[in-house]
Amino acid sequence: MHVVLQRVVNQIANEVRGLDAETTQLHPRGLTYKWTAQQVIEHLLLGYRLTSGALETRLHKGRVSRHQTRTYLQWSLQLMILSFGALPRGVPALDETTPEKGQFAAMDGRQLGDLLRREIEAMDTLLDTSRRKFGMDRVATHPWLGPLRVDQWRRFHVVHGLHHLVQLRSVIAEVAPAPVPIKLSSSLVKELQIPAQRPLT
Question: What structural domains does the chain harbor?
Answer without folding.
Answer: 3-192 (1.20.120)
